[in-house]
Amino acid sequence: MAEDLMRYDLMAQEALRGVIRRALEVAQKKGLPGEHHFYISFRTDAPGVEISEKLRKQYPEEITIVLQHQFWNLEVREDGFSVDLTFNKIPETLVVPYSAVQAFFDPSVQFGLQFEVAKPEGAPAPAEAPKPAPEKGEQPSLPGDSAVVSLDAFRKK
Q1: Alpha-carbon distance 88 to 78, whole Å?
Q2: Residue 91: beta bridge partners?
Q3: Hey, what's the torsion of the CAs at 17, 97, 110, 74, to 10 degrees?
């Protein structure tokens, strides 16, 4: 088989990240229609990600955010987005390049995308084991503040 010098894999990833950008643009301009809401999982150690040191210590590699009822100042750009959320009643601004996004899921319509995001060179090993995902069919709890959840609960098995 010939070597892919065009890098179609990268072109496809970039095109699919455009779906995320368009969905966020709709949310920014019109709000989230109907029951739509987004789970966005991204690498916290990826280049261009801006989060507080507190969040970076708590989630050194990956975090999943929920954009549903309580998010503010969503700003969608060509290369990424920023949004204000609260974590334990503390407001935080997150800046996320699309290149850091590992997964995007809208459970209202069972639509999801997954991406390969390379672990940055020299990135430390995770400080703790991941928390177990909810059982199949069990919805993660979503308190008034933003919650970090595992997307495994929504994947078809």
Answers
A1: 30
A2: 86
A3: -120
